[in-house]
Amino acid sequence: MDKVYDYLMKDLGLKLGDTVVVGVSGGADSMALLHMLKEIKKETDIYIICAHVNHNIRPESAGEKCEVEKYCDNNQIYFESMTIEEYGDDNFHNEARTKRYAFFESIVKKYGARYLFTAHHADDLIETILMRIARGSTLKGYAGFAKEIDTGNYKIIRPFMDVTKDEIIKYDKENKIKFSEDSSNHKDKYTRNRYRKYVLPFLKSEDPNIHEKFIKYNQTLLESNEYIEKQAQDAINGVFKQNILNIERFVELNKVIQNKIINNILEGIYQDDLMLITDSHTELIQKLIKSNKASSYIHLPNNLVVVKSYNSISFTHEKSEVKDYEIELSNFINLSNGMNLEIVKKCESTNNYVCRLNSKELKMPLYVRNRKLGDRIEVKGMLGRKKIKDIFIDEKISVEDRETWPIVLDSSNKVVWMPGLKKSKYDKEKSEKYDIIIRYY
Questions:
Q1: CA angle, residues 405, 407, 409, in degrees to nearest 5
Q2: What is the CATH code of the structural domain delimited by 236-317?
Q3: Pairing of strands 326-328, 332-334
Q4: Is 139 left (phi over 0), alpha (psi -120 to 50) or beta?
Q5: In this predicted structure, what is the pLDDT of residue 322?
Q6: What is the pTM of this model?
Q7: Cβ distance 331 to 362 under 8 Å?
Q8: What Cα–Cα distance (Å) separates residue 228 from each residue in 80, 217, 357, 418?
Q9: Is the peptide bond prior to 365 cis by the omega test (within 30 degrees of 0)?
Q10: What pLDDT score was predicted for residue 191?
Q11: Ramachandran assignment for 428, one of left (phi > 0), alpha (psi -120 to 50 degrees), beta (any other)
């Protein structure tokens, strides 16, 4: 553990007055880390904030929180905690991790800390790499996790990444550090536990220093990812702007750069939670891009929706289901798409944003609503009726915008206008007889 101490003091350079937040569960790893920081505090007067999360799953959790708090009180360490009251996600570990790191970040901001320390170690790294290889991931994801992550406002530091669980347990025993043991860590129903109980012992029996190979693997992949990142950056700036991917420019790029761009986008969305995405998600996005369909979409974890609309791909979190609306057309309506419909007395324009109607040819009153399946319009200057859906396609209206686009119709359900797109045969020229002028803006 001497190398960890040297890393913190020399490489990281903890110094007088630094404020650090350390995530502490009360287990062997985090208590060892808290103890080491306490020892460093004796030499360099740093401010330590212990951040504890009670996941509220096991009966012993409350007692573990009390033990950690007692340790902090006895050693002049600030203590902050939270309890997760309920879970709504199907993936418990994912939701717990998200809430845990959100809490950690709030404590970092509260105290203006430079660093957030977690007790991830070499065995954790091996487990993470193996699970991601089995599931599939991005180049960065296959690496496992980095020892240091610069968030911009603070750094996440994993000082134990180069040491094994056995080394940590030995440190705890030598320093008589009390810690709690999570009973769920022995249950085979959790994937990580199965790797920990069955795969790691086999690897270590083959090579007691196997963790060094994985650390080297981790470093090699992160360095390779960094190099490809630099090569891809100019290309990324040219094809991905304001959350929109330009397909026409994207398909001209090398396949490695293409995948790197997709991975970068996903990594930006999922941050450090790369366990949620796999290489199959990259392939799904590639298939969406190459699809002959003008408009389509796919769903990814955490309610992310990737939408193809003609020559662009957008990434957005799924919104609540669009509600149908139908409103009687009065003097002024503010629509759900942010636009307005207004009945005006006078207007000189004749474009698709203005419609003139003769009330005697229609069944009053007029209504405005979003589209319904089977809607058709008798387009001005054309014979027969045309599907609203086909007009949306012809005009290259995105799938999302189609759901809220206003349709003006009379009380007999005749579509008389598609504001901004198409006029019906009921629209009048300025020289003809009309008594209604509607403006869309």
A1: 170
A2: 3.30.465.60
A3: unpaired
A4: alpha
A5: 53
A6: 0.65
A7: no
A8: 40, 16, 60, 48
A9: yes
A10: 85
A11: beta
Burial of 171 (0-12, 13-18, 19+ CB in 10 A): buried
pLDDT value of residue 327: 87
Q: Write down the pLDDT at residue 91.
A: 58
pLDDT (0 to 100) of residue 190: 79
Residues of the chain with pLDDT under 50: 320
Burial of 79 (0-12, 13-18, 19+ CB in 10 A): middle
Q: Show Cβ contacts of residue 16 under 8 Å, excluding neighbours closer than 6 positions.
A: 44, 45, 46
Instruction: Using alpha carbons, list the distances in angstroms from residue 109 to 33, 112, 115, 257.
Output: 21, 5, 11, 36
Tell me how far apart the 2 most distant CA atoms of the chain are, in Å. Answer: 97
Q: What is 2-121+158-206's CATH number? A: 3.40.50.620
Structure token pair of residue 21: 């937040």
Return the CATH architecture of domain 326-440. Answer: 3-Layer(bba) Sandwich (3.50)
Q: Name residue 433's amino acid.
A: K
Is there a contact between 193 and 185 (Cβ–Cβ < 8 Å)? yes
Where do the structural domains in the chain lie, given as residue ranges?
2-121+158-206, 236-317, 326-440
Q: Residue 318 in contact with residue 293, Cβ under 8 Å?
A: no
